Amino acid sequence: MVEPRDTIKIENVVASTGIGTEINLKQATLALEGADYDPERFPGLVYRTKDPKTAALIFRSGKIVCTGAKSIDEVHKGLENVFQSLRNIGIDVKGTPEIKVSNIVASADLHSVLNLNAIALGLGLENIEYEPEQFPGLVYRLSDPKVVVLLFGSGKLVITGGKKPEDAANAVDRIVKELKSVSLLR
Known about the structure:
This protein folds into 2 domains: about 15-100, TATA-Binding Protein, CATH 3.30.310; about 110-180, 2-Layer Sandwich (TATA-Binding Protein). It contains 4 helices and 9 strands. It has helices spanning about 25-30, 70-90, 115-120, 165-180, and strands at about 10-20, 45-50, 55-60, 65-70, 100-110, 130, 140-145, 145-150, 155-160. Strands 2-3-4-1-5-9-8-7-6 form a 9-stranded antiparallel sheet, covered by helices on one side.
């Protein structure tokens, strides 16, 4: 039997950075191949990198948000590609800007069908939201690690809000322990 912790897969890492200089987004869009800028729909320029496959949301202020990476390493590689592309079109990117991970979304599998009604009652309602008419999953807010876990009847989990990969592992371990303690997981 595969341990739930071993099923954890990082689905998306979101990080932000800034280059400390304003960017003319119209000019940058024309110079960057594949850049997409429609200020009517979104205030930032969307620039996709291919290897790794990420999307950088670049704002006039010089702030950049990277999304779509599958690891923290990919975030750094993707943003390094963005920094180099900006340098190549004459935008001043000094040194290596600090990159801050703001959200890691991961999935996991408990390999067991879950009774979400029993879980909502068994774990206490103070940190749980469960309204099956509105959303098929149970929302469980943990304080340590500070993440939100979505539990589904299929036994699948989505962990969001983590800042490092260990947050997902610690959340899965805690969920398994808590569900076993109220006899809702074998």
